Amino acid sequence: MKNVPELFSSMVFNDTVMREKLPKDVYNSLHKTIADGSELEIAIANVVANAMKDWAIEKGATHYTHWFQPMTGITAEKHDSFISPVGDCSIIMDFSGKQLIRGEPDASSFPSGGLRATFEARGYTAWDPTSYAFIKDDSLCIPTAFCSYSGEVLDKKTPLLRSIKVISEQAVRILKLFGHTDVENVIPTVGAEQEYFLIDKELFGKRKDLKLTGRTLFGAKPPKGQELDDHYFGVIKPRVIEFMKDLNEELWKLGIYAKTQHNETAPAQHELAPIFTKVNVATDHNQLIMEMMKRVADRHGLACLLHEKPFAYVNGSGKHNNWSLVTNTGINLFDPGKIPPQENKLFLLFLCAVVKAVDEYQDLLRLSVATAGNDHRLGKHEAPPAILSIYLGDEIKSIFDSIRKATSYDPKIAGQMDSGVNVLPSFQKDTTDRNRTSPFAFTGNKFEFRMVGSSLSISEPNIVLNTIVAESLCQFADILENAIDFDNAVTALMKETITKHKRIIFNGNNYAKEWVIEAENRGLLNLKTAVDALVYYKSEKNINLFLKHKILNLAEINARFDIMLENYHKMVNIEALTMIEMVNRDIIPAVYNYLNDLSESVTKMKSIGVDNHAGIAIINKISDTVDILYEKTKQLEVSHEIMQEVRCLADELETIVGNDYWPFPTYADLLFSV
Ligand code: ADP
Ligand code: MG
């Protein structure tokens, strides 16, 4: 048994290490930079860099890298060793403040969308001291932001940091009005629950589709899927437990609060939830979690699938983005605390800000999770629909109703829940949680955004969330700062907001067919595909929002739009090409091998006078199906809509062609391989 407290954060240049390794004045300057974003002087940076290097070398590091998050959605790194020649044949280990603060990677091969023309090859990375440096693979990794040489952002971190600043400023305005004059800043906190699949690595290697696209493009329905519900929270298999143990250790070393692990609904599906932390750190950590999952799986002879829908017929994977706001004085703004919620106006006003934001910017939230992979999941009765709505729970909903109607609120509605078992204490019914179908649920002290796909960076959804809620808070503050009677103004503002935006509140079943119709009647958006959603990036309302709060400029918005759309088309195209390759080079040859052997047997039997009805029937069926498959696959090159038809034909063949002949492991092999 490892000493976990000792292991935890042992590979992180965190506050404790800084305090220990840095002279006091340097530590204080650095701390100030971390706390309020003030600039770090080069003299200070030199001392910090040197201390970091010595610490990293002690831990076995030989290299350093700026670690950044380009628009690919994953992380990028370029390792340089610390060596620096002195004299003829010796070296010293060197790392300067300049190298710590700024890097100049060749940026021309990262997605830059419409910025490409002005962008050339130059770009630079700049240290984000709010996220600690860490050691991975014997390299000191320095979390950085990534910009073009002319300053346009090309990454997922810079706008996130900007959005944190903006929501902090606007939230502080409101808090001041409520008398919280001691609050200096507010930070969004996030806990991202990560779903994933684990399958046997050897079988993974036999599937071109999994290797090239992350999901299976073929595969007949297995005799057993998730219908017995015997996997969710089930006993974890020994091989998976070994993987999880190893993964936890790797994550703990990196200072990641890996906390909860369990089996998920589908066979071979699991989840890991860390304890929440500041959103920018949570974003970095989620990237590391995904990377480590893949790497640790590999060590255990497993393959980790992060795609939103690796298998048809069983649930796909998502990422629940739990989001809240906390003040530097420790108040969670979405936790009513000891004050009954109906009397806690600050809490209710912040809830109103979210309700308004989600209603006004349904399109932005939807497009922040718009990818080809996530299209397979949203609205497929395993994940929320593509329609945004908010679940508030019965209690908050009735409080809101009473505010809207200006009637008094009856708290009895949130009565006691009888567990029916005498030994269990009766507990206050949790009125806020457990609507698992809602895309955006209030869960008592935080919101849970459930539309995020499992493979996505959580950066985009949080940039949007922070910015849209900041905009609501900004409008509220503009009104309240000029109010003559503050109390009455707050009540009036809440009444107006709830009345105007009540259409977005929905406590019912989001998977129900009726909801789609009702949502349409309410005028809510239903952007079914990523492409439907992405065009809203360019709407005047959304552009104005990003410009107003200086999150993105026009060139950056255009670039992001281009990149997201291009990624979508590239992904679909790769899938189509992979399908064609698998049909022509694997499936059809396998089918003909089988046909050949089968017809030989039939001929042989006929020669000794045995009529073989089954054999002939199978031969006819297979040759008819393979003919259509061949024709349809030719059309695939021009039409992506044929993909589903091609799949069905191939899957049908899979169920009739002999097992030994089929060129890939089947769903049953893959899903029950571990
Ligand atoms: P569930 O019931 O959805 O499985 P939990 O209540 O265990 O979830 O919490 C899920 C996630 O929410 C965890 O990552 C947890 O750390 C996170 N979380 C809890 N409180 C907050 C908060 N105030 N801000 C952000 N995330 C939070
Ligand atoms: Mg959850």
Architecture overview:
The structure is a single chain. The protein is 47% helix and 14% strand. Helix 3 (24-36) packs across helix 4, helix 7 runs parallel beside helix 16 and helix 21 (554-607) runs parallel beside helix 23. A hairpin with a 5-residue loop joins strand 10 and strand 11 (269-274). The two termini are 25 Å apart. The chain has 674 residues and is of the alpha+beta class. It is globular. It has 24 helices and 18 strands. Adenosine-5'-diphosphate (ADP) is lined by residues 189-191, 193, 273-276, 320, 322-324, 332, 445-446.
Relevant terms:
alpha+beta; eight-stranded antiparallel beta sheet; six-stranded mixed beta sheet; globular; binds adenosine-5'-diphosphate; binds magnesium ion
- Main sheet record: 8 strands, antiparallel
Structural class: alpha+beta
The rounded distance between the terminal residues' Cα atoms is 25 Å
Measured as a percent range, the helix fraction is: 40-55%
User: Per the principal axes of the C-alpha atoms, what is the gross shape?
Assistant: globular
What share of the residues does DSSP label as strand, in percent? 5-15%
| CA-based gyration radius | 28 Å
User: Can you count the helices?
Assistant: 24
Query: Which regions have little confidence, pLDDT < 50, spanning 5+ residues?
Result: 414-432
Q: What compounds are bound to the protein?
A: adenosine-5'-diphosphate, magnesium ion
The residue-averaged pLDDT reads 91
How many distinct beta strands? Answer: 18
Summarize the structure.
The chain is an alpha+beta fold. The relative contact order is 0.11.
